[in-house]
Amino acid sequence: MHELPVTQSIVSIASEEANKNNVKVVKEIRIKVGRLTGLMPSCIQYYFDIISKGTVVEGAILDIEKLPIRIRCGSCGKESVIDMNSYSCSFCSSNDIKIIGGNEFYIESLEVE
Ligand SMILES: [Zn+2]
User: What biological processes does GO assign it (predicted)?
Assistant: First the structure.
């Protein structure tokens, strides 16, 4: 249930950005969300529709792209993309791995009119 504060920050960052650039209508907000955050895109859109009412970003569509979990292996040194349920290197199956991606959350761009 941490979508609410996350959505509040999307609305405030995007509105600030739009106001700074004298934008009147924001059509789309592109967001990247790492799989490890556990954030649900549909929840974010739901909260967004409520919170954005009366702001410059009201009515915008959220284009949320999920980013994979990426690791770097401590044994073979290679980087790979893994599933939630297999925390091991895709190349050598070592468990000596370091997570280097999947916790991201950021607004990539705004599409404006
Ligand atoms: Zn490896």
Answer: protein maturation
Indicate which CATH number applies to the domain containing 46: 3.30.2320.50
Residues with CB under 5 A from ligand 1 (ion): 73, 75-76, 89, 91-92, 94
Please tell me the distance from the alpha carbon of residue 68 to that of residue 80, in angstroms, as a whole number. 10
- Residue numbers of the domain that contains 34: 3-18+25-68+101-112
Residues 6+ apart with CB under 8 A from 30: 63, 65, 107, 108, 109, 110, 111
Residue 89 lies in a domain: no
The number of distinct structural domains making up the chain is 1
In angstroms and rounded to an integer, the radius of gyration of the C-alpha atoms of the chain is: 17
Sequential pLDDT tens for the chain (113 residues) = 589 999 999 999 999 999 999 999 999 999 999 999 999 999 999 999 999 999 999 999 999 999 999 999 999 999 999 987 788 999 999 999 999 999 999 999 999 98
